[in-house]
Design brief:
With 353 residues, this protein is an alpha+beta fold. The protein is built from 8 helices and 7 strands; from the N terminus they run H-H-H-H-H-E-H-E-E-H-E-E-H-E-E. Strand 4 and strand 5 form a beta hairpin. Helix 1 packs antiparallel against helix 2 and helix 5 packs across helix 8. The N terminus is likely disordered.
């Protein structure tokens, strides 16, 4: 998923309906730009002979830049057209818009219009990039703070209980220590996901493939969640003979851990999560199913977007987005649908080579 760095919420709209910091809609920006162009054109009329065309062009481009920066592409393009008409009035015969006979003047008019369009597009694109960067930064902080809060609170509660003067049975102490270890592992996954996201966006993530038995990877990942804090148990359903696949063991382990962590967090206390694996052609098909609220069909793609803002309760981090990126880099697929009987089912396929 090399496109991860520019993925956006598919429900978001961009540019045409972009609100202004002060709350004025793009229509008002367009009107203000048109008024500014008229004022500049009228103000320059007495100085037609004294001013160079370049000066007139630069002055008329100013409202175009302002319209593009504050209102987006549509106001910028409208302002570019109006500015071109205003610029044509400075060409002979003076004061007669669009009545030009000289070849040089026609070329100047065309060049001005193209420059105005390019300037409008560049300014609008730059504003969009800055706005998207700010949005991603805000969502990142919100996501990280959300994902950090629960494991940190659990670790603090467990460690406080262990440091208390009250005597605990060995079983209780072991359960609290395992809880601390489990939540610390979740924090480690969060950091790994963020680092992996940076590698993907920079194009530096390439799998180091080696032949491996998928059952080994699956059992290693499941073992980490043997004592989930909400009592959820991971049930395995593995074919007797799974084909060997050529994958990056660390990256695939990260995918399995992200899927299991996601399923456990969205499961009711004590309900099971099922991980099934079977051969599919010469590759492997892995399913992780929970008994949680499921994923609405309209959010089946949204859940794989980084820092998503869907209606599903729980983490809004990057685990599923990272998982899709890794799977697709291996030539596989990942999808989500409803589990028969309720809940969500994530399906991953890895080819043999």
């Amino acid at each position: 998923m090399a496109r991860l760095g520019v993925a956006k919420d598919p429900r978001s709209t961009r540019d045409v309906r972009r609100p202004l910091p002060g709350g004025a809609p793009p229509a008002w920006v367009t009107i203000a730009a048109l008024v500014a162009i008229v004022v500049i054109t009228v103000a320059l009329t007495p100085f037609q002979d004294e001013l160079e065309r370049a000066v007139k062009a630069l002055l008329l481009v100013v409202p175009v830049v302002g319209a593009a920066a504050l209102g987006g592409r549509v106001p910028g393009y409208i302002a570019a057209g109006a500015a071109t008409i205003g610029f044509s009035m400075s060409l002979p015969p003076i004061g007669s818009p669009l009545q030009i006979a000289v070849t040089g003047d026609v070329v100047a008019l065309i060049v001005f219009f193209l420059v105005a369009l390019v300037v409008s597009t560049l300014v609008s694109n730059r504003i969009d990039v800055l706005a998207e960067a700010d949005r991603q930064r805000t969502l990142l902080l919100r996501s990280v703070s959300h994902d950090l809060r629960t494991p940190l609170a659990t670790i603090r509660a467990a460690s406080t209980e262990l440091l208390d003067d009250v005597e605990h049975t060995p079983e209780v102490e072991e359960r609290l220590l395992r809880l601390v270890d489990l939540e610390a592992a979740r924090l480690d996954r969060l950091v790994s996901n963020l680092l992996e996201l940076n590698r993907i966006e920079s194009g530096a993530m390439e799998p180091r493939r080696v032949p491996i038995d998928p059952e080994v990877l699956i059992r290693r990942s499941v073992e980490r969640f043997r004592l989930a804090p909400n009592g959820v148990v991971v049930e395995l359903d593995l074919d007797d003979e799974l084909p060997v696949i050529q994958v990056d063991a660390t990256q695939v382990d990260q995918v399995l851990s992200n899927l299991l962590d996601n399923a456990i967090r969205h499961s009711a206390d004590g309900s099971p999560v099922t991980l099934a694996a079977s051969g599919e052609g010469s590759g492997v098909r892995i399913e992780v199913a929970d008994r949680g609220p499921g994923v609405p069909p309209e959010e089946a793609e949204l859940v794989f977007q980084p820092f998503r803002s869907g209606t599903i309760a729980g983490s809004s981090g990057v685990g599923l987005a990272i998982s899709r990126a890794i799977v697709e880099r291996h030539g596989g697929t990942i999808s989500v649908d409803d589990r028969p009987g309720g809940g969500a089912r994530f399906v991953v396929t890895f080819p043999a080579g």
